[in-house]
Amino acid sequence: MTVTMPPTTCPPHTRPGRPTQQEQSMDHPATVFVATCDLAGQVRGRAVPFSDHASVARTGTGWVPANLAISAFGPIAPDNVFGSVGDLRLIPDPATGIDIPADGVHPGVRLYLADQTLPDGEPWTCCPRTFLRDALEDLRRRTGLEVVASIEHEFALGGLPDSRPFSLRRFRDAEPFGSDLVRLLEQAGLEPENWLPEYGDGQFEITLRPGTALEAADRAVLLKELVRDLARRRRLPVTFAPILDPAGVGNGVHLHLSLRDVDGHPVLFDPVRPGRLSATGSQFAAGILHHAPALTAWTAPSPVSFLRLTPHRWSAGGVFLAEANREALLRICPTTRIGGSDPAGQFNLEFRAADATANPWLALGVLVRAGLEGLTGDYQKPTVWPEDTKESDLADVPTLPASLEEALDALEADEVVGSWFDPRLLTTQLAVKRSELAQLEGLDDLARIRKVSDVY
Ligand code: GLU
Ligand code: MG
Q1: What confidence tens digit (pLDDT) does each residue in 262-274 have?
Q2: Alpha-carbon dihedral sign for residues 207, 72, 449, 370
Q3: Is 261 within 8 Å of 145 (Cβ atoms)?
Q4: Any idea what DSSP says for residue 259?
Q5: Are residues 160 and 77 part of one domain?
Q6: What separation, in Å, do the N-terminal and C-terminal C-alpha atoms of the chain show?
Q7: Counting beta carbons within 10 angstroms of the beta carbon of residue 419, is it exposed (0 to 12), middle (13 to 18) or buried (19 or more)?
Q8: Residue where one domain finishes, among candidates 71, 97, 124
Q9: Cα 171 to Cα 179: distance, rounded to the nearest angstrom
Q10: How far apart are CA 229 and CA 109, in angstroms?
Q11: Dist CA 228 CA 241 (whole Å)
Q12: Lower CB count within 10 Å: N or C terminus of the chain?
């Protein structure tokens, strides 16, 4: 049965405050959920009655530091550095407010993403969203540059008939899920761009329009929750797990980045340089390539993430920068001049070694930090592999870590990357991820994939 969803009651980017007349009527959800996204990429938080909307907007709701140490599979990681003490506030950011609409018997909810602060409202330096904000602020202060970003997600729907990659049939088989999702994303202000049947079994991809880096990361958090919520209501099994079959293609998350100067002009494009990548772009890329092993401990942080990050899956087959190549860690994306479009504004770098088990604020934050190191430090100028590069030419490019264990060791060993974090945040990431590995110890790849797939 198709359930028609009523229009959302909350226009995007509505400021929480005094409830509007419409909100004072019964035409609003019963609850407001204030949420953060943690190191396991899980969205956790608390609901308050809608009548407390104004006060929660002002002063937030309570939260516990040790919640950051909760692993993907449930238990809190051993040696949690926060102990049993301390208190935080979750302060909702009005710009993130969306309504998940009521649908049949399922009530709606107003959802806000929040910054985690100390009880007096001071920023909490272990808050993942604050980490991204601070990275962007440092980039701005030291270089005058702003990041424009968008994040693509792949995921698999279960219970659909067999169908061919990219086929209209697969698109139609997933209806009305696809059309409802696109409408829901539009209503929520997430600006969907492409909704496509992908290559893998039951695989789909959704892309959103670019925005500021904070918007892009917020949207990545919200998008997954909207997809999961809609799929649950439609009784369609869904998973964003990085891989479902050790021999198959994975579900990637690709982060697209470009840089603008203070006047809003794009600075990555230079038509006379290799790959049309400007000197600034080359420096930014150098930082990401140099620190790649440690970065993957944040961007692909599940026990099965590295089954996806191997050659010939079009995920990321090695640590290199290349024009148009889908095996590259950093891909220089194509541009078009159709309709008089300006390539400079479209030109962007795509980081492909991420997946949906990552925290989007941290994933984007570490790329910004690494890029900033490249812009301000003394890094080796990277080779831009042209589009006609043969696979044999790439034989000597560095490989990515072969496992999460290796990525975590690389993170621990990389003092530059380590210096970006409050030590408690770094220690907690290592503890949470090692506890997730321990919880799946002894299982074969397929069993580990199933456990991860159940959570994501
Ligand atoms: N499924 C691939 C991945 O794991 C991406 C394929 C594509 O280029 O869209 O990243
Ligand atoms: Mg894709």
Answers
A1: 999 999 999 999 9
A2: positive
A3: yes
A4: E
A5: no
A6: 26
A7: exposed
A8: 124
A9: 10
A10: 11
A11: 12
A12: N
Name which residue sits closest to atom 2 of ligand 1, judged by CA.
Answer: 315
How close is the Cα of 77 to the center of ligand 2, in Å? Answer: 33
Q: How far is residue 319 CA from its own chain's centroid? A: 20
Asked whether 343 and 277 are in contact (CB, 8 A), the reply is: no
Q: Which residues crowd ion ligand 2, with CB under 5 Å?
A: 205
Q: What is the CATH number of the domain that holds 41?
A: 3.10.20.70
Q: Is 63 helix (H, G, I), strand (E, B) or coil?
A: strand
Same domain, 240 and 290: yes
Per the DSSP assignment, residues forming a β-bridge with 47 are: 33
Query: Is 425 part of a structural domain of the chain?
Result: no
Going from the Cα of 300 to the center of ligand 1, the distance in angstroms, rounded, reads: 14
The 3-class SS string of 137-156 reads HHHHHHHCCEEEEEEEEEEE
Considering the domain architecture, whether residues 99 and 36 belong to the same structural domain is answered as: yes
| 185 and 145 belong to one structural domain | yes
For residues 423-441, average pLDDT:
98
Structure confidence by residue, pLDDT tens digits, 5-35: 333 333 333 344 444 444 444 578 999 999 9
| Residue 423, domain member (yes or no) | no
Which of 95, 92, 97 has the alpha carbon at shortest distance from 121? 92
Which ligand sits closest to the CA of 326? 1
Give the model's confidence band at 104: pLDDT under 50 very low, under 70 low, under 90 confident, else very high.
Answer: confident
Please state the atom number of ligand 1 nearest to the C-alpha of residue 352: 10
Domain around 264: 129-417+432-438+445-455
Burial of 161 (0-12, 13-18, 19+ CB in 10 A): exposed
Site of tokens 């000597």: 396
Q: Specify the number of domains making up the chain.
A: 2
Q: Which structure tokens are listed for 232?
A: 């649950």
Interval between CA 205 and ligand 2 midpoint (Å)? 6
Query: Which atom of ligand 1 approaches the CA of 154 most closely?
Result: 1
Please check the confidence at residue 325 and state whether its pLDDT lies above 50.
yes
241 in ligand 1 pocket by Cβ < 6 Å? no
* Model pLDDT for residues 140-149, shown as the tens digit of each residue: 999 999 999 9
- Is the shortest distance between the CB of 249 and ligand 1 below 6 Å? yes
CATH number, domain with residue 174: 3.30.590.10
Residue 185 covered by a domain: yes
Domain boundary among 73, 100, 124: 124
Segment 210-237, tens digit of pLDDT: 999 999 999 999 999 999 999 999 999 9
200 neighbors 244 (Cβ within 8 angstroms): yes
pTM attached to this predicted model:
0.93
Which atom from ligand 1 is nearest to the alpha carbon of 205? 9
